Amino acid sequence: MNPTRAEIDFSKLAFNVEQIRRHIHGEYPRRKIKICGVVKANAYGHGIEPVSKKLVELGIDFLGVANYDEAIKLRNEIPNTPILVFGTLIHSKLEPAKYVSILHKHNLTATVASYDTAKFINDYSRRFKNKFKIHIEVDTGMRRIGLDYRRAYRNIMRIAALRNLELEGIFTHFASSEEKNKSFSRLQLTRFYKLLGDLKKAGIEFPIIHAANSGGVLDLKDSYFNMVRPGLLLYGYYPGSGVRNKIELKPIMNLKSKVTYIKKIEEGESVSYNRKFFAKKPEFIGSIPIGYGDGYWRRLTNRSKVQIGKKLYRQVGAVTMDWIMVELGSRYNIAIGDDVLLMGEDNGVNLGADKLAKMCGTIPYEILCAVADRVERVYLNY
User: Fold this and answer.
1) How confident is the model at residue 94 (pLDDT cuts 50, 70, 90)?
2) Which of 40, 348, 349, 358 has a CA positioned 20 to 30 A from the CA of residue 66?
3) Domain count, the chain
């Protein structure tokens, strides 16, 4: 049995959700602001089905996923909560009528990022009694997908004329809301507000308007509208250094394994591939069954630390696909089978994904999403 596992603590998830609620409603205590919990990419590596079920239990209003495969899989577990699919449809898909019928069957909410997508859904929805719910994405500066804000008014007017669509929502996405300098985010908001104003004058209003991702939730109250879309915040991390410590968060994942093997090496002997570490004196080395095949990055070689008991130990030698080695010293008080904390927080020790990300030159999103499927997820306080 593989001792490497990711422990997901749902009491910490509940804490983070409550912190987000207090923050957004502290700004607007009389306004009901919906929360769309972003659970794409397997809930950022935490497990999409169990995390989503818990979020629904905690009163989350929407769930946000990246594509229709994620949505259909999730709908089988969660029958009633609205699921917004952020990705766009591929119009050339074989048997489009059948495909759209599947989406109708699962009662999914589509993102429309072009008139062509809207027309595609509309044309193949004529045979259904219920209109297809859509949220229109407006590109105000992200330059990824969405109606270009300069031509969005004209395209939305055309979309509004289609009879088989329900225009439930409209949204935009920030390019740099996690940065301290908010000038570009505010420019995006200005563009979005102008479009909404122009549409309102033309008699088009949307029941749900949203823009705030995690960075926006923390630092851009003007972007709340009536729904926000926290992602990384739910899992206990800040999206960037420019928005740290706005609210208290608790990382919900502890990546753990166990000491599996202990050996003694002599002065001058090397450890692991390519001989990146040499012992300066006789000492003991502990081997732990986790590696880059599990999502523990090779870039952590000779950089990271792990916690065993109440003490930190340095990882030494190249991280391999299935193993890392740690330096125990000339004497040790460790036994085979002792727990090892590799990422997360435990007993006052912080080895968060943000710290590992800094060592690897990346972002905590990537560290969390990299935790492999072969790592068992263990859910606590379910």
Assistant:
1) low
2) 358
3) 2
Residues 197, 315, single domain; the answer is: no
What is the C-alpha to C-alpha distance for residues 375 and 289, in angstroms, rounded to an integer?
11
Tokens for 104?
Answer: 């109708």
pLDDT tens string 106-150: 999 999 999 999 998 998 888 777 789 999 999 999 999 999 999
What CATH number should be reported for the domain holding residue 175?
Answer: 3.20.20.10
Residues 215 and 322 in one domain: no
The question of whether 273 is a catalytic residue gets the answer yes
Residue 292 tokens read as 């880059």
Task: Tokens for 47, please give them.
Answer: 């497990």
* pTM for this model (two decimals): 0.95
297 with 179, same domain: the answer is: no
Name which of 135, 200, 120, 131 is nearest 169 in CA terms.
Answer: 135
> Catalytic pick from 28, 261, 273, 382?
273
- Tens-digit pLDDT profile for residues 148-165: 999 999 999 999 999 999
Candidate list 40, 54, 133, 182, residue with the active-site label: 40
Give the model confidence (pLDDT) of 332-347 as tens digits.
Answer: 899 999 999 999 998 8
Residue 122 lies in a domain: yes
d(CA 134, CA 126): 15
Residue 167: inside a domain: yes
Residue 151 domain-assigned?
yes
